[in-house]
Design brief:
The chain is an all-alpha fold. It has 2 domains: 94 residues, Helix-hairpin-Helix base-excision DNA repair enzymes (C-terminal) (Endonuclease Iii, domain 2); 110 residues, Hypothetical protein, domain 2 (Endonuclease III, domain 1). Helices cover 61% and strands 0% of the residues. It is built from 12 helices and no strands. Helix 1 packs across helix 11. The longest helix has 19 residues. 35% of the residues are buried. The structure holds iron/sulfur cluster. Iron/sulfur cluster (SF4) binds next to helix 9 and helix 12.
């Protein structure tokens, strides 16, 4: 019953949305360190801006943790300016680079041998890397069973009436509902960006309106 609701939501959203790689920054990288950097850069900005900043970094030869440490914070700030909040993002990237070198000799592919919970704890102990950033990495790189929740997902699932509460509570619930967290994460964000927007959700055109608590409640109130 639980996953059949998840299957229905995913099958309907898959029919209406096609996903382009530049809509989700981490889809554009294979290297684990660059994946995390792209996720940090996409905090509080669009994935397109994050990718422009990534292009600047890679064009200037910054690909490995050691390259970032050698370049130093001022150069990094200049290169990532387009992604906004460049002071704090540069600091987070430098802390991540230091951790990568000290703990894994700069090779984050070694994280594949680690327990995902342990990776989550280690990443979130780095200032500037929160639970959502760590979970996006876990899903996109390690294909771990976790569910990153951003503001779009929080809004969409609350309106649908399928999950609510704290980050952890919502994550647990969404894992019960969606068998493929990465696919669900991407499609729910796309839905939140295009149709179930914060202001003026386009409920009339929404493929989920017959199973959405928000929409069904509004309809009932209008009738009353
Ligand atoms: S019916 Fe409206 S509120 Fe519900 S998911 Fe669709 S757009 Fe969002």
């Amino acid at each position: 019953m639980e996953s059949s609701l998840g299957d229905l939501i995913i099958s309907r959203l898959s029919e209406v949305y096609s996903i382009k790689k530049d809509e989700f920054a981490p889809l554009n990288f294979k290297d684990p360190f660059l994946i995390i950097v792209s996720i940090i850069l996409s905090q509080n900005t669009t994935d397109k801006n994050a990718l422009k900043a990534m292009e600047n970094l890679v064009y200037n030869g910054l690909e490995k943790p050691e390259d970032f440490l050698k370049a130093g914070r001022e150069k990094i700030k200049d290169m990532i300016r387009v992604a906004g909040l460049y002071d704090q993002k540069a600091e987070a990237i430098i802390r991540l680079a230091k951790w990568s070198v000290q703990k894994y000799g700069g090779d984050l592919s070694l994280l594949k041998n680690e327990d995902p919970d342990q990776v989550f704890n280690e990443l979130t102990s780095i200032k500037g890397i929160g639970p959502k950033t760590a979970d996006v990495f876990l899903v996109f790189y390690l294909r771990a069973r976790t569910f990153p929740i951003d503001t779009h997902i929080r809004r969409v699932v609350k309106r649908l009436g399928i999950a609510d509460g704290s980050y952890d509570k919502m994550k647990k619930r969404l894992l019960e509902i969606f068998p493929d967290p990465m696919k669900a994460h991407i499609l729910l964000i796309k839905h939140g960006r295009t149709t179930c927007r914060a202001k003026n959700p386009n409920c009339e055109k929404c493929v989920l309106n017959d199973v959405c608590r928000y929409h069904l409640t509004l309809k009932t109130e209008k009738k009353a």
